[in-house]
Amino acid sequence: MTIGADTSFIPWLLQRIQKKETTISQNKQYSAEILAILLQSSPASRLRFIDLDGVDILLQLLSPYRKRDPIKGTEEEEYVENLFDSAVCCLDESGGKTKFLEAEGIELCLIMLKEGKMSKPRALRLLDHALGGQDGIACCVKLVEAAGLKPLFSMFMKSVARLLPYPFGWDRPADFQQQDRQSTEHLLGILSSMLRSLPADSAERIRLLAKFVEKDYEKIGRTAKIRREYASKVAAVDKEIQAERAKLSAEEQEDKVDEWLSRRLDAGLYSLQTVDVILAWLVAEDEGARQKIKCLLGERDEGLEVVRATLEGRRSVSRDLGVVNSVADQLNPMDTAAEDRDAVFQDMLATLVEHLQ
User: Fold this and answer.
1) How many other C-beta atoms are found inside a 10 Å radius of the C-beta of residue 246?
2) Do the Cβ atoms of 268 and 226 come closer than 8 Å?
3) Are 45 and 91 in contact (CB under 8 A)?
4) pTM score
5) How far apart are alpha carbons 82 and 29 in whole angstroms?
6) Distance CA 343, CA 351 (A)
């Protein structure tokens, strides 16, 4: 029997991480770490935890860190990291998103974005998971209703690195650049989810589109700049792969397919695809945005065909490997709900590709 199958163990861990202590002890930190591991590896554990109001408890425990940071290098720092990891796992379940919404998790994350330090990039990660997938519609609507567009686009328009506190947890510029990249990717994921999920002609969707259009389409300009950065990195890897491909037989090339895809993903392929999904939605929604995007792409002698090619590539990979919408999909490859999400995602991409003709 696995540890997670013991129905009394998760309630005990939940109780242990709430125990009041003057200084976070090693045992309390270990309890939070074990909980995070269980939630990452066991769907049954996630559902059990959610049923015990674990999401609400996690948010209560994280609330004190909306403005202050744990002391670097302490058990408390690891404890907080594990609490955030546990919350992310819960948000990959439909019931977890519902509990997150009911416990005002969206509002807490927005406070962290505005006032937090260590919590800022972690709040972005929570929002990315909360808004993602077909079950994230209510969270998308709530984020707009809670006046979340302004802080999100403020971060989007600026270098994320300037908004994050350099001294916390990073001793080398490379660490900081990695955090910057991850935060940018979460922002892209949030914007993509809202464009995908906010109901057509709803007030929330109109407000989102207005943000992209305002100030002479400056947000679209920023999106295009991010696209150039990712496209350049992916193109460099593609060039290396093409040189390697020329030296291999057909059978050897087949053996290298997974490795090559992994290298392209490491270079930023998924983020490039996310950026192009955003651009495709804007092309489909607004004629002014369409002309602006064509103009920006034309600065490098490109057109909408490069965006279309990216999305067609995403469709091909999704058909071959299946779409992974969440950690839950990875752990439940036979889940029929995941297959349904794959079909919906394929339909969305097909529709967007049509608008790029």
Assistant:
1) 8
2) no
3) no
4) 0.88
5) 8
6) 12
Distance separating alpha carbons of residues 17 and 178, to the nearest angstrom: 30
Burial 197-211 (b: 16+ CB within 10 A, else e): bbeeeeebbeebbeb
Q: What is the pLDDT of residues 147-190, one digit of tens each?
A: 999 999 999 988 544 444 444 444 444 554 566 788 899 999 99
Percent of the chain whose pLDDT exceeds 70: 85
CB 175, CB 161: distance < 8 Å: no
User: How many degrees, rounded to 5, is the angle at CA 328 between CA 44 and CA 36?
Assistant: 65
In this structure, which long-range contacts are made by residues 148-153, counting pairs with CB atoms below 8 Å and at least 24 apart in sequence?
A: 148/106, 148/110, 148/113, 149/207, 149/208, 149/211, 151/110, 151/113, 151/114, 152/113, 152/187, 152/190, 152/191, 153/211, 153/219
pLDDT digits (tens, 9 = 90+) for 204-225: 999 999 999 999 999 999 999 9
C-alpha–C-alpha distance, residues 176 and 105, integer Å: 26
Tokens 């804007």, located at residue: 282
The answer to whether the CB of 324 falls within 8 A of the CB of 286 is no
Cβ neighbours of residue 282 under 8 Å, at least 6 residues apart? 195, 209, 212, 220, 289, 290, 293
Task: Indicate the pLDDT class of residue 341, thresholds 50, 70 and 90.
Answer: low
* pLDDT surpassing 60 at residue 36: yes
- pLDDT of 67: 87
pLDDT number for residue 328: 39
Which strand (E) or helix (H) includes residue 203?
A: helix 203-245
CB atoms inside a 10 Å sphere around CB 181: 16
Residue 265 has pLDDT above 80, yes or no: yes
